[in-house]
Automatic annotation (TrEMBL):
Protein name per UniProt: Copper chaperone PCu(A)C
InterPro entries: LpqE-like, Lxx211020-like, PCuAC_sf
Lineage start: Bacteria, Pseudomonadati, Pseudomonadota, Betaproteobacteria, Burkholderiales
Origin: domain of life: Bacteria
Gene3D superfamilies: PCu(A)C copper chaperone
Cited Pfam families: PCuAC (PF04314)
Protein backbone atom coordinates (compact mmCIF):
# COMPACT_ATOMS: atom_id res chain seq x y z
CA UNK A 1 0.00 0.00 0.00
CA UNK A 2 1.29 3.45 -0.80
CA UNK A 3 2.21 5.76 2.05
CA UNK A 4 -0.50 8.33 1.29
CA UNK A 5 -3.19 5.57 1.44
CA UNK A 6 -1.94 4.45 4.87
CA UNK A 7 -1.93 8.05 6.07
CA UNK A 8 -5.49 8.64 4.79
CA UNK A 9 -6.73 5.47 6.51
CA UNK A 10 -5.10 6.51 9.80
CA UNK A 11 -6.85 9.90 9.64
CA UNK A 12 -10.21 8.25 8.87
CA UNK A 13 -9.88 5.82 11.80
CA UNK A 14 -8.86 8.60 14.20
CA UNK A 15 -11.69 10.87 13.05
CA UNK A 16 -14.35 8.16 13.36
CA UNK A 17 -13.25 7.19 16.88
CA UNK A 18 -13.27 10.84 17.98
CA UNK A 19 -16.85 11.29 16.82
CA UNK A 20 -18.09 8.65 19.29
CA UNK A 21 -16.15 9.64 22.41
CA UNK A 22 -15.94 13.18 23.62
CA UNK A 23 -14.16 14.09 26.81
CA UNK A 24 -13.29 17.26 28.65
CA UNK A 25 -10.77 18.14 31.32
CA UNK A 26 -10.76 20.79 34.05
CA UNK A 27 -7.66 20.71 36.25
CA UNK A 28 -7.69 17.23 37.87
CA UNK A 29 -11.27 16.49 36.80
CA UNK A 30 -12.12 14.44 33.73
CA UNK A 31 -15.62 14.72 32.26
CA UNK A 32 -16.49 11.86 29.95
CA UNK A 33 -19.11 11.49 27.22
CA UNK A 34 -21.81 14.07 28.10
CA UNK A 35 -25.04 12.94 26.42
CA UNK A 36 -28.79 13.35 26.65
CA UNK A 37 -31.61 11.13 25.47
CA UNK A 38 -34.11 12.18 22.83
CA UNK A 39 -37.47 13.60 23.90
CA UNK A 40 -40.87 13.63 22.26
CA UNK A 41 -42.76 16.74 21.11
CA UNK A 42 -44.12 18.83 24.01
CA UNK A 43 -42.14 16.87 26.61
CA UNK A 44 -41.27 19.56 29.17
CA UNK A 45 -38.11 17.98 30.56
CA UNK A 46 -35.20 15.74 29.68
CA UNK A 47 -32.08 14.31 31.25
CA UNK A 48 -28.36 14.48 30.58
CA UNK A 49 -25.67 12.08 31.70
CA UNK A 50 -21.87 12.05 31.93
CA UNK A 51 -18.97 10.58 33.86
CA UNK A 52 -17.03 12.60 36.42
CA UNK A 53 -13.60 11.40 37.52
CA UNK A 54 -11.37 13.09 40.08
CA UNK A 55 -7.75 12.21 39.34
CA UNK A 56 -6.46 14.71 41.89
CA UNK A 57 -5.44 14.50 45.55
CA UNK A 58 -8.19 16.65 47.04
CA UNK A 59 -11.97 16.42 47.13
CA UNK A 60 -14.01 18.58 44.78
CA UNK A 61 -17.76 18.90 44.32
CA UNK A 62 -20.08 19.54 41.39
CA UNK A 63 -22.28 22.29 42.86
CA UNK A 64 -24.41 23.49 39.94
CA UNK A 65 -25.18 23.02 36.26
CA UNK A 66 -26.62 25.41 33.66
CA UNK A 67 -27.62 25.29 30.00
CA UNK A 68 -29.44 27.51 27.51
CA UNK A 69 -31.27 24.33 26.38
CA UNK A 70 -33.62 24.54 29.40
CA UNK A 71 -35.16 27.13 31.71
CA UNK A 72 -33.78 25.31 34.75
CA UNK A 73 -31.07 22.67 35.20
CA UNK A 74 -30.77 20.60 38.37
CA UNK A 75 -28.64 17.76 39.72
CA UNK A 76 -30.86 14.84 40.75
CA UNK A 77 -30.37 11.51 42.47
CA UNK A 78 -32.47 8.44 41.84
CA UNK A 79 -33.15 5.70 44.37
CA UNK A 80 -35.59 2.87 44.99
CA UNK A 81 -37.76 3.10 48.10
CA UNK A 82 -39.68 -0.15 48.26
CA UNK A 83 -41.14 -0.57 44.78
CA UNK A 84 -41.13 3.16 44.03
CA UNK A 85 -38.37 5.00 42.22
CA UNK A 86 -37.72 8.38 43.86
CA UNK A 87 -35.94 11.27 42.18
CA UNK A 88 -34.79 14.26 44.17
CA UNK A 89 -32.75 17.38 43.59
CA UNK A 90 -29.40 17.33 45.43
CA UNK A 91 -27.08 20.19 46.33
CA UNK A 92 -24.18 18.62 44.48
CA UNK A 93 -22.05 15.56 43.90
CA UNK A 94 -18.96 15.13 46.04
CA UNK A 95 -15.88 13.82 44.24
CA UNK A 96 -13.25 12.45 46.64
CA UNK A 97 -9.72 11.85 45.29
CA UNK A 98 -9.47 8.90 42.87
CA UNK A 99 -13.27 8.64 42.59
CA UNK A 100 -15.51 8.19 39.57
CA UNK A 101 -19.24 8.90 39.27
CA UNK A 102 -20.98 7.53 36.21
CA UNK A 103 -24.37 9.05 35.45
CA UNK A 104 -26.56 6.80 33.34
CA UNK A 105 -30.28 6.30 32.76
CA UNK A 106 -32.04 4.49 35.58
CA UNK A 107 -29.19 4.66 38.12
CA UNK A 108 -27.80 7.11 40.67
CA UNK A 109 -27.36 10.68 39.48
CA UNK A 110 -28.55 12.54 36.40
CA UNK A 111 -28.88 16.14 35.26
CA UNK A 112 -32.49 17.29 34.85
CA UNK A 113 -33.27 19.73 32.06
CA UNK A 114 -36.54 21.40 33.07
CA UNK A 115 -38.48 23.61 30.66
CA UNK A 116 -36.78 22.50 27.47
CA UNK A 117 -36.49 25.26 24.86
CA UNK A 118 -37.10 22.65 22.11
CA UNK A 119 -37.30 18.84 21.83
CA UNK A 120 -34.01 16.97 22.06
CA UNK A 121 -33.43 15.24 18.72
CA UNK A 122 -30.80 12.60 17.98
CA UNK A 123 -27.63 14.16 16.62
CA UNK A 124 -28.27 17.61 18.11
CA UNK A 125 -25.77 19.16 20.52
CA UNK A 126 -26.06 21.77 23.26
CA UNK A 127 -23.72 23.41 25.80
CA UNK A 128 -23.77 22.50 29.49
CA UNK A 129 -21.82 24.51 32.07
CA UNK A 130 -20.56 22.55 35.08
CA UNK A 131 -19.62 24.52 38.20
CA UNK A 132 -17.25 22.84 40.66
CA UNK A 133 -16.54 24.05 44.19
CA UNK A 134 -12.72 24.13 43.79
CA UNK A 135 -11.96 23.71 40.10
CA UNK A 136 -14.36 26.39 38.86
CA UNK A 137 -16.53 26.29 35.74
CA UNK A 138 -16.20 24.52 32.43
CA UNK A 139 -18.47 24.17 29.42
CA UNK A 140 -18.99 20.77 27.82
CA UNK A 141 -20.90 19.75 24.72
CA UNK A 142 -23.83 17.38 25.22
CA UNK A 143 -24.70 15.12 22.28
CA UNK A 144 -28.32 13.94 22.01
CA UNK A 145 -28.57 10.18 21.45
CA UNK A 146 -31.52 7.83 20.91
CA UNK A 147 -32.27 5.55 23.90
CA UNK A 148 -30.68 2.12 23.91
CA UNK A 149 -33.01 -0.89 23.69
CA UNK A 150 -32.62 -1.78 27.38
CA UNK A 151 -33.61 1.72 28.58
CA UNK A 152 -37.08 3.08 29.26
CA UNK A 153 -38.51 5.12 26.35
CA UNK A 154 -38.16 8.90 26.44
CA UNK A 155 -40.46 10.35 29.06
CA UNK A 156 -40.71 6.92 30.70
CA UNK A 157 -39.73 8.10 34.19
CA UNK A 158 -41.64 10.34 36.55
CA UNK A 159 -40.41 12.61 39.34
CA UNK A 160 -42.02 12.19 42.76
Amino acid sequence: MKLHHVFAMAIAITTSSLSHAHEFKLKDLHIGHPYARTTVANQPSGAAYLTLENKGRSTDKLVSVASPAAKSVQIHSMSMEGNVMKMREVDGIELPPASKVEMKPGHGYHIMLIGLQQPLKAGNKFPLTLNFEKSGKTEVTVVVEAPKKEEAPAGGHKHH
